[in-house]
Amino acid sequence: MTPAERAIPRPVTEQDVLGAIVALGSLPKRGSDQAEIDLVAYRVALDGVASTALADAVRNILRGELGHAFFPSPPEFRMACDRADAVRQADVAKQAERDRRARDQAALKPVVRTEAEKQRAREIYERFIQSHAAWKLEEQKLAFRSGMPTEEGSRR
What we know:
By secondary structure, the protein is mainly alpha-helical. The protein is 70% helix and 0% strand. It has 2 domains: 3-107, no CATH class; 115-155, no CATH class. The longest helix is centred in the middle third of the chain and has 34 residues, at 74-107.
């Protein structure tokens, strides 16, 4: 399945709804003698559901997601489809983010420094080290004069 197909699944068809009901047929049903009305209720409840969400919801229901072993009511079935679709959408968003990061990473080019730039950076670093050493020495002198312990003195 391509990323575009994962992102925009097709809506359920009448055949998908009937297939889902048949797939869940092994579950015990709650008492109802109005099969025609029940079928209409399932059609209404599942209207607008993505086919992938319906298939995932059937799988999840058969795996015990509902917490009971009975055939789901139309609202339960719709809620299971909505949960499955939310998981699918989160997965698609995560994959899109991974793809975006991979594209961004591939677009990065390594920074290549010339010898002159490297030499300039070494000189700047050396000046920093020298100024820091001078500052540190001055700090130690002031601490010694004031009677405060220096870092070296406190380590002994």
